[in-house]
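Much of our argument rests on the idea that a fold can be written as discrete symbols. Part of our work consisted of pairing the sequence of a single chain with a tokenised description of its backbone. We regard such an encoding as a compact summary of how the chain folds. The amino acid sequence and the backbone structure tokens for this protein are reproduced below.
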Amino acid sequence: MEMFIIPLGTCSCPYEDIAPGVRDGTMVELPVPAYLVKLDDGKNLLVDTGMSRLHITDPGATWRGTGMNEALVPEMAPEDDLETRLTELDVRPTDIDYVINTHLHFDHAGNNELFERATFFVQREHYEFATGHPSFPNRYWNLPKLKYELLDGEMELFPGVEVILTPGHAPAHESVMVRLPESGNMVVCGDAVYTQDNLDHESWGGQADPAAAAESAAKLTRIAETENAILLFGHDPAQARRFHQSPQSYR
């Protein structure tokens, strides 16, 4: 099994939205990743799909006129198009067999529409919450041509790939454990933990349900300790600089 961390641009926002009380008043450029996992049976799995490529030419494509999330400013270069990044790995959208969405926000499900052949996995409770909800722009993922398999709780989806319930950022948010033979265990946190600062300062006020988010973070921390796993945070600029980005990989 092999995993690629795929960079898909950044999204600027006030840091108090991410880790209140740490660097309030500071704007930060948050990395937006997706993850390609090449499974042992030759199938291709994506974890999240990043922001829509519409933002390359139109940063306001998602939120303009909605009165929501006006402080979020996507920044994408042409090479940050997910299809372009996959092409660098000799992978086409039709080569993607599965997609796990940690959740259905615009920066985690923005390119779902590209993968008509894939089976999408998302928690049932989350899917039902997000359907029709303006905070989860349905135009990117709630599409008749896409096939969703709705999950009810934690499970091993594929050998070496497990979903972990981590609510708090959103109802039934899920994180993903990937057990790599050489690099070891890695947990894609999604937005259960945005950055290391959330853990270091116990700063959860930027989450929809701070108490649940704190519990989920504690759960992930326990998993990291007991499973000797690395936590890959959702949008940590410092961590993104430390880890190999696609086309380099972890095996």
Remarks:
- The chain has a mean pLDDT of 97.
- The chain has one domain: 2-242.
